[in-house]
Write a structure and sequence with these properties.
It is a single chain. By secondary structure, the protein is mainly α. The protein is built from 17 helices and no strands. Helix 6 packs parallel to helix 8 and helix 10 packs parallel to helix 12. The longest helix is centred in the N-terminal third of the chain and has 28 residues. The C terminus is likely disordered.
Amino acid sequence: MKPASKKTLNGLVEEHMTSLVRDSITMQRRSKRGRRTLQSSSINLARVCLQKTAASTTNTPLVSRPTKNIDLNALLTSEIPIPPPSEVGMTLHWLAVDGVQPISLLNPQDEHAVSNRRSNESNESQDSTIALRQLLPRLVSDELQLYFTRITHALVTHPEAAISRLANDTGIQELIPFFTRYITLTIHQTINDTEQCRLMIHCIDALIRNRNIHLELHLDQLLPSILTCIVASRIGSTGENHWLLRDEASDVLVRTCALFGEKYGNLRGKVIQTLCKALQLKGNELGRWYGGIVGITKFGAKTVDAFILPLVGHWDALENTLEEASEEGRFAVHRCQDALLYAMSVYFRSVSDVEQSKRLDCDKVSEVLGDKLVPLQCNANAKTDYSTCFV
């Protein structure tokens, strides 16, 4: 070999070896090794498509692999035996929630344990629906916890002041789940205490009137509590004025439907459907019947026309129960009759005479009710003080 060729070849080999050593040092630094090892050189050689070096004890020479021509058309039409590599990434998932490992594809699960857990959850959901939602007071600030404690205490000592604060205070949105649970549990536990239920109805009314909070996510808990105070068969003990509670709860129910009826189109229909279920007159459930009539009457003349007018025929049944009823039973019958008469008056004051003649048989109504209706219709546009009535 000529000296010039030797010199050129030595320079190329030196340059190539220097590049390999430099890249091996880079691999050593990236792999965070304390000293450069043979593995760093192997990784570097694999990167430049050369054969990996063997162990230092073996003297196997480095042999480059022969290149192979690949037909791209054949590669496109053939099936790939090895799936293409996916991008390296990171995924977050819960290993445990409150000490329980969630059922997930990323978490290994024992089939027997999973089946037992699902059966337990189904049994718990059937036994109690309260355990499905767990509120965590520790997530609320200390100031809001103190506010909640003082409001619940003030509802016992100074209820009017506490209700006023609930209707006007701002920044209590985080406490709405806790107030909702407090009201719901109180009504459920003190359904025999009329005054306590009235206080909770006033609290619901205060929360509805507060424009600084949002109750949309809690209507599924508040509405059943309101309806319970309207159509429950037994509210309060003997001698308590549960009629006033039903009236006030009906007013709150109508205001709730008026406030959220635009956002939830089927809200009013479902509420009226629940009230209609209470219109089945039974001897021992006059309070429930009274609540259904009062609640439907609050929604206006159209609901009275659709659901209350067909109940006029029950007037004779109410009259027959007066003979053998006790003093408390007679008072309940009179309250139901008053509710029915008030519903009739709402209808006649809101509907024109022409519509009345089309929708209602006045002779039949006068035959059933007699002189009990005074007056049925008051014309606001009339210049006289006369009123139309059936005698």
